[in-house]
Amino acid sequence: MIEVKNLHKSFGDREVLKGIDATFENGKTNLIIGQSGSGKTVLMKNLVGLFDPTEGEVLYDGRNFVTMSKEERIAMRREMGMIFQSAALFDSLSVLENVMFPLDMFSKMTHRERVKRAQACLDRVGLIQAQDKFPGEISGGMQKRVAIARAIVLNPKYLFCDEPNSGLDPKTSLVIDELLHGITEDFNMTTIINTHDMNSVMGIGDNILFIYNGEKEWVGDKTMVMESTNEKLNDLVFASDLFKKVKAAYVKR
Ligand SMILES: Nc1ncnc2c1ncn2[C@@H]1O[C@H](COP(=O)(O)OP(=O)(O)OP(=O)(O)O)[C@@H](O)[C@H]1O
Questions:
Q1: Ligand 1 close to Cβ of residue 16 (< 6 A)
Q2: Are 147 and 176 in contact (CB under 8 A)?
Q3: How far is the CA of 242 from the centre of ligand 1 (A)?
Q4: Alpha carbons 113 and 213: distance in angstroms, whole number
Q5: Which of 28, 92, 115, 138 could cross-link with 206 by S-S, CB 3.0 to 4.6 Å?
Q6: Does 41 sit in the ligand 1 pocket, CB within 6 Å?
Q7: CB of 198 closer than 8 Å to CB of 174
Q8: Which keywords label this protein (predicted)?
Q9: Which of 20, 40, 196, 213 maximizes ligand 1 atoms within 8 Å of its Cβ, making it the mutation to test the pocket?
């Protein structure tokens, strides 16, 4: 579980995060949603230590990340997996070598053990047959799955995904969502996903934090989204005509 308490982040005299309180639970896909510029990425960067908060606490299962020493933070980072908007694979390494990379860097496993572990992760994302291919030879959706395999290879407790579906078609996005949801449950990870994808909200929104202009506006799950009367939330989630009709039909039931 990750808890955020009274988190503030300013750049100069501009306050971007204005006292966020949130709880991200393990075994759940925790989504952060909000308009462009609302502060989602800044929040995630504060969680993983790419930014230091101006004020507030970030607790990883009770351990305050903000006040940790540099050494403790480095150790904590080993417990975190990250997936960025672009899959950020190494073009010159094969799919298997990409997934093995964190093990090569951080584990004391033998070569044979590293290959086995990386292959198990590739198997989990359904890509064992692509292990010898290079990133340039596989689709964007497959690249994302390789990035997921690489993110879980060190068996992290916490998984961070910034816009995992960006650039993917809706059907492939569903595959990625289901995969993230599945591995979160399988490994009881605390997964946090920044997303603009309203299909993800409705599909895998176990716990949703809606940020509006740097403040916590609403918290709930995918069922509560359907029932919510929060206008700002409805404006964001049901922005398209199609989603407006879905909501209207749901409310009429
Ligand atoms: N390093 C920085 N220095 C100054 N301002 C920053 C910095 N990083 C982000 N900001 C500002 O913080 C605000 C929130 O940005 P953030 O990237 O968190 O938005 P977001 O909700 O993730 O948006 P999007 O959905 O478009 O990615 C923006 O106004 C941005 O300009």
A1: yes
A2: no
A3: 29
A4: 47
A5: 28
A6: yes
A7: no
A8: ATP-binding, Nucleotide-binding
A9: 40
Answer whether 34 contacts ligand 1 (Cβ < 6 A): yes
Q: What is the ipTM of this complex?
A: 0.97
Q: How far is the CA of 38 from the centre of ligand 1 (A)?
A: 7
Complete DSSP assignment for 47-107: HHTSS--SEEEEEETTEESTT--HHHHHHHHTTEEEE-SS----TTS-HHHHHHHHHHHH-
- Is CATH 3.40.50.300 the right assignment for the domain spanning 2-221? yes
The pLDDT tens digits of the residues spanning 86-141 come to 668 899 999 999 999 999 988 899 999 999 999 999 998 899 999 999 999 998 88
Q: Where are the domains of the chain?
A: 2-221
> For residue 176, which amino acid is it?
I
pTM of the model: 0.92
